[in-house]
Amino acid sequence: MSEPIDPGVIELAARVFDLARFGHTGELTAYVDAGVPVDLTNDKGDTLLILAAYHDHPETVAALLARGADHGRANDRGQTALAAAVFRRSEPAVRALLDAGADPDAGGPSARETAVFFELPEMSALLGRPAR
Fold first, then answer.
1. How far is the first Cα of the chain from the last one, in angstroms, to the nearest whole number?
2. Which residues contact 46 (CB under 8 A, 6 or more apart)?
3. Whether the Cβ atoms of residue 74 and residue 68 lie closer than 8 Å to each other
4. Which of 54, 74, 107, 122 gives the lowest tally of CB atoms within 10 Å of its CB?
5. CA-angle at 121, arms to 77 and 22, nearest 5°
6. What is the pTM of this model?
7. Which residue(s) pair with 110 in the sheet?
8. Rounded distance, CA 86 to CA 72, Å?
9. Do the beta carbons of residue 44 and residue 16 sit within 8 Å?
10. Tens-digit pLDDT profile for the chain (132 aa)?
11. Domains by residue range for the chain, with CATH
12. How far is CA 37 from CA 10, 69, 130, in A?
């Protein structure tokens, strides 16, 4: 039988996820630099990177990537940080994720599929042509 999680740990995790959600980059990176896992995941499979991308905080995305965040992780619905950044039409976040090696065809729907579905030709152009 597992031990119950300390309420303080749950409170800290909630705070860290909110920092990613609201783009409080300095405070979030201070927690990560102090030992909070950069790939901390919530109950929906969202990482700090996915939340920062979805809520259109490219500076936070870049800071998390610089600290080794896994750009390839998908949440429980198959969404990646790159697909989230495409959905939000965040060119700086998309560029940062692509520069870090994020795959436009990963996840479901993928970033490329997201751009097509929501008719975002500028995002499709940014993602480039599919690999053959």
1. 49
2. 17, 54, 75
3. no
4. 122
5. 50
6. 0.94
7. 107
8. 15
9. no
10. 678 888 898 999 999 999 999 999 999 999 999 999 999 999 999 999 999 999 999 999 999 999 999 999 999 999 999 999 999 999 999 999 999 999 999 999 999 999 999 999 999 999 997 655
11. 7-127 (1.25.40.20)
12. 14, 9, 32
Residue position matching structure tokens 């969202």: 46
Q: Which of 76, 90, 83, 88 is nearest to 114 (CA)?
A: 83
Residue labelled with tokens 């790939």: 39
How far apart CA 108 and CA 3 sit, in angstroms, is 35
Residues 6+ apart with CB under 8 A from 64: 20, 28, 29, 32, 38, 48, 49, 52
